[in-house]
Design goal:
Length: 509
């Protein structure tokens, strides 16, 4: 039996999805090309001492009981007696917390649970309502998948949440291995580990794992370690404590090592101390120290930092974990037109259209937009947008009628998006074909209450700023550049033209 399996056996059976799995049925992921199983990781990179595992559990849980943050989903998980409602409360929080900071999530979570306190309530909501509440939280497909899964639980599972991590992952769309483990351990007390970004950082530092922490081999080892460490009597609290440690103490930069409740188990800290001692001995010409038996002496160890990346003394414990170079986001440009009219009470109204039901920002509302080629010149951008509006509305829109507002930059997780913003004021009502892209006119208040992205809110803010500059004299040449109408039908800067003026064909010089 390998050291890692011995450690797991010391704390209970090794589990897959929270269920004990016989050795003959365990996953063969990572098997060697010859058919044998992968060699166990070197001892310094795992927890092999049952006494140390027990001490780490006790120290971490005692710290968590003293120092845990008061968060609304933790309160619900601790006080809700109904297992399905408890699991739902945890599930919503875990989906919202993916790629989003706790401080941002709290308000969204409270509003969500107030509006849809049960799976049944969420299943009856419309996607439009879900998108409206989710607006601004980012990664909008999360809300959509959450509602789809809620509908499935109600319609196919009789309103009863799956009770194991394995079934949660298998039966619910949008629920991956981490989310399933979190729900199962916190809501049902299933002794299964979790591995998220915070846990990766903590475990890599505890056991000096310096290989690329996003690689499948390292992730597999971390899951094995998490399942071996999880406390069998308080699995949910232990998993939350491990994540809490990574979020508040063992942070990416400037970790609070002196406050760490498990620092005596941290081999990254020991490595820092040894490197300092070695540097001191070298400075005074003392002999090189003998390698410690706890150091990894395996050549080409898949869990050690690459040989071409030497120890950086300025980083200390933050030498761990190492990450692969971040992929640069794709660069994209989009022409966007703020179509506006004067409402019945004199306030401006804006035309928004709904995006397709799949893809980026699926189902959200936006100003009419058109993707642009990167090397397209400004005049060609205008013409392309005018052509798009003509084809979509049937109006004889001319490029000269589009008034330049400015450029708005928004960074998505994988896209560096620039919106080239124009405005087109109208002086009359316009009826659009409902068979085309869904569209509607909204006031500013209705716009912000709609399911619109943060990027579109930035676009509207840019247009409103321009309008404020138009109404305030003496703003200088920048205001004139942004508001001066283009083309042969131009009049004095800042004049709001009628739709008829925009649609008149240009006169010959």
């Amino acid at each position: 039996m390998s050291q890692l399996r011995a450690a797991a056996a010391a704390g209970g059976l090794r589990r897959s999805g929270g269920r004990a799995v016989p050795a003959a049925r365990r996953s063969r992921k990572g098997a060697s090309p010859r058919g044998g199983t992968q060699a166990p990781p070197p001892t310094p990179h795992v927890f092999s001492d049952p006494a140390e595992i027990g001490a780490l559990r006790r120290n971490l849980l005692a710290w968590y009981d003293r120092c845990k943050r008061d968060l609304p989903w933790r309160t619900l998980a601790a006080t809700e007696t109904d297992a399905d409602r408890r699991a739902y409360a945890v599930w919503v929080s875990e989906i919202m917390l993916q790629q989003t900071q706790v401080a941002t999530v709290i308000d969204y979570y409270n509003r969500w649970m107030q509006k849809w306190p049960t799976l049944q309530a969420l299943a009856q909501a419309s996607l439009e309502e879900v998108n409206e509440l989710w607006a601004g939280l980012g990664y909008y497909s999360r809300g959509k998948r959450l509602q789809e899964a809620a509908k499935k639980v109600v319609s196919e599972l009789a309103g009863r949440m799956p009770r194991t991590a394995e079934d949660l992952q298998k039966l619910l769309p949008g629920v991956g291995r981490y989310t399933a483990g979190a729900i199962a351990s916190i809501s049902y007390g299933q002794a299964t580990g979790v591995v998220d970004g915070n846990v990766i950082r903590v475990l890599c530092r505890l056991r000096c794992i310096g290989a690329d922490s996003s690689s499948p081999a390292v992730i597999d080892q971390l899951w094995d370690m998490a399942n071996a460490l999880v406390d069998r009597s308080r699995p949910g609290d232990f998993n939350q404590a491990l994540m809490e440690l990574g979020a508040t103490v063992c942070v990416p930069k400037a970790p609070l090592c002196r406050e760490c409740p498990v620092k005596q188990h941290c081999r990254a800290q020991r490595r820092v101390e040894k490197e300092l001692a070695f540097a001191s001995q070298k400075l005074f010409g003392k002999p090189t120290p003998v390698p410690d038996v706890e150091d990894c002496g395996v050549g080409g160890c898949p869990l050690c930092p690459p040989a071409m990346e030497p120890w950086d003394s300025s980083l200390g414990v933050t030498n761990f974990p190492r990450k692969a170079a971040k992929k640069q986001p794709r660069v994209a440009r989009t022409a966007t037109c703020v179509l506006e009219r004067r409402g019945c009470h004199g306030a401006p109204e804006y035309l928004i259209v709904q995006r397709p039901s799949s893809g980026l920002l699926a189902g959200l509302w936006e100003f009419p937009s058109l993707p642009l080629d990167q090397d397209l010149q400004e005049e060609k951008q205008r013409e392309a947008l005018a052509d798009h509006l003509r084809a979509w509305t049937g109006w004889p829109v001319v490029a000269g009628g589009l008034r330049f507002v400015g450029e708005v930059v928004h960074i998505f997780s994988h896209i560096h998006q620039t919106y080239v913003v124009y405005s087109l004021p109208l002086d009359g009502d316009v009826t659009l074909d409902p068979a085309l892209t869904p569209s509607r006119w909204v006031t500013e208040e209705e716009f912000h209450a709609s399911a619109v992205s943060t990027a579109m809110k930035k676009v509207l803010k840019a247009r409103e700023k321009q309008r404020g500059e138009e109404s305030s004299p003496g703003k200088g040449s920048k205001r004139k550049r942004a508001t001066k109408p283009q083309g042969a039908n131009s009049t004095r800067p800042g004049t709001q033209l009628s739709l008829r003026a925009f649609l008149r064909p240009p006169t010959s010089p």
